[in-house]
Design goal:
Elements: H1 11-27, E1 33-40, H2 48-53, E2 58-64, E3 69-74, E4 78-81, H3 87-96, E5 101-105, E6 115-119, E7 136-140, E8 143-148, E9 151-160, H4 187-202, E10 208-217, H5 223-233, E11 238-244, E12 248-253, E13 256-261, E14 264-275, H6 280-292, H7 294-311, E15 315-320, E16 325-328, E17 332-343, H8 349-356, E18 364-365, H9 367-377, E19 388-392, E20 398-402, E21 406-409, E22 415-423, H10 429-447
Parallel strand pairs: 1-5
Antiparallel strand pairs: 1-9, 2-3, 2-11, 3-8, 4-7, 6-7, 6-19, 8-9, 10-18, 10-22, 11-12, 12-21, 13-14, 13-20, 14-17, 15-17, 16-17, 19-20, 21-22
């Protein structure tokens, strides 16, 4: 059974049943409702096969190999732009006002339909290569593959009117491109940007500023090839892709912004970085130094403190791990602290994310001052790099990650790779540049073609 093409019964019958029921709902719901047909399927050996099966149009992927969790979306049933000044709060409002759904078949343990969301690091004018993405998108995929430990499902969704006919959907028209002079900074230029940020920190304007950089890769693998490499090499990360029928933003991020399930939530503070060792003894020694490093611990504590303060108005319970742990990725080690608790009634994943983003791990502290400094010292448009990206069900449960270790692939252009470093009072620009190179290595290794490939 192919994933995207029409399948044998009972899928067409289920969708017809859902259309009939959705038409009745639409009559009482501003003329629109979702028709959803859900069909359990055998767990696929390769969830990326669904992504590769379609070469044109919108393709979405959110993959967590170690957890056995995957979402792949193809096409659009409905889409909304998130171009306001607070796109995450806008997403929360859209989710609450979403048309009702008529679900036919054996549905997964989720409130359907499932939406896919991506938001820029900060709202504003976009460089031309980020144009189709705008400041953010909320998309209900036309066809969805959902794989989790409890099972696997193929979900078809249409937005229908009162007569039960599908309402055509397309990507929203993006805002006009901004007046950007976008280019990759040299090491000397990036060092100068870090020194400018350090000067502002010394003057008391901020305690931390994350300065990012962009690198170009003229020759590279396709998105399909790169995703397969990322899944293979980074099974503990979230591998993601947003292909808008041409440009594709993809990566493998270690950082979760927030996850919500039935009123409980989990956040992750990820700040403080060191390389991996050549062997286990060196690896352990580096991890011990990272855990004891004053500069790295201070940078990490800033993030934990900010997360606690930001979520306080939305939570009824909050538990914070007393000490950070060292988490090891294939090429880096990080300090990580988990925060868990319970949300107040009526709060969704997007409400929580609106309070959190941008965290000090990707922006700085204080948030507004750091954002101003970033806008002044960086030479490129971050676009969706370091922005929230993920999924939610109609109830508001779901997960958003921070789009790090990422790249933008545009046909006929070099790949754009992104990485950033947290700058605090004791930061050394040369050391920070080396750290940015380590962070770029993950996505660069997935994109570089090997000899003969």
């Amino acid at each position: 059974m192919t994933f995207v093409r029409p399948v044998a019964e009972p899928a067409p019958r289920l969708l017809a049943e859902a259309r009939t029921r959705a038409a009745a709902l639409a009559s009482a719901a501003e003329g629109k409702a979702f028709a959803v047909a859900a069909l359990p399927i055998r767990r696929p050996a390769d969830t990326l096969e669904a992504f590769r099966e379609v070469r044109e149009g919108v393709r979405l992927a959110f993959l967590q190999p170690e957890r056995g969790f995957s979402i792949v979306g193809i096409g659009i049933a409905a889409a909304w732009p998130l171009n306001g000044p607070d796109p995450l709060s806008e997403a929360a409002g859209l989710l609450r006002s979403m048309p009702p759904a008529a679900v036919a078949g054996d549905a997964p343990p989720r409130e359907l339909p499932i939406v896919f969301a991506g938001v820029a690091f900060c709202p504003g004018d976009r460089a031309p290569h980020w144009g189709p993405f705008g400041n953010g998108l909320l998309v209900v995929p036309r066809v969805l593959l959902l794989v989790e430990p409890a099972g696997a499902w193929r979900v078809e969704t249409e937005l229908v009117g009162t007569e039960g006919r599908a309402i055509p959907a397309r990507l929203p028209q993006p805002p006009a491109a901004g007046p950007f002079t976008d280019r990759a900074a040299t090491q000397a230029e990036w060092t100068a940007a870090v020194l400018r940020a350090l000067d502002r920190i010394a003057r008391g304007e901020a305690t931390k500023v994350v300065v990012a950089r962009e690198a170009y890769l003229p020759e590279h693998r396709s998105a399909d090839e790169a995703l397969a490499v990322l899944v293979d090499r980074f099974p503990t990360c979230t591998v993601f892709a947003v292909d808008l029928g041409g440009p594709c933003f993809l990566g493998a991020t270690p950082e979760r912004l927030a996850s919500v399930s039935q009123g409980t939530f989990e956040l992750m503070a990820l700040a403080g970085t060191a390389p991996r060792g050549a062997d286990s003894a060196e690896d352990d020694a580096i991890a011990a130094r990272l855990a004891a490093d004053r500069k790295e611990r201070e940078e990490h504590a800033v993030v934990v403190r900010a997360l606690r303060e930001d979520v306080a108005p939305l939570v009824s319970e909050l538990e914070v791990a007393p000490e950070p742990e060292v988490v090891r990725l294939p090429n880096l080690q990080h300090l990580r602290t988990l925060l868990r608790g319970r949300l107040r009634d009526g709060c969704s994943l997007f409400d929580l994310a609106a309070r959190l983003h941008p965290t000090p791990a990707v922006g700085g502290m204080p948030r507004e001052a750091a954002a101003r400094i970033i806008a002044e010292v960086e030479t490129f448009d971050r676009g969706w790099y370091a922005g929230p990206l993920g999924w939610a069900d109609a109830r508001g449960d779901g997960e958003l990650v921070v789009a790090l270790r990422s790249a933008l692939l545009t046909p006929g252009q070099p790949a754009r790779l992104f990485a950033g470093c947290g700058i605090v009072a004791r930061s050394d620009p040369e050391r920070e540049f080396s750290e940015s190179e380590l962070k770029l290595r993950a996505i660069r290794s997935a994109l570089v073609r090997e000899e003969g490939s």
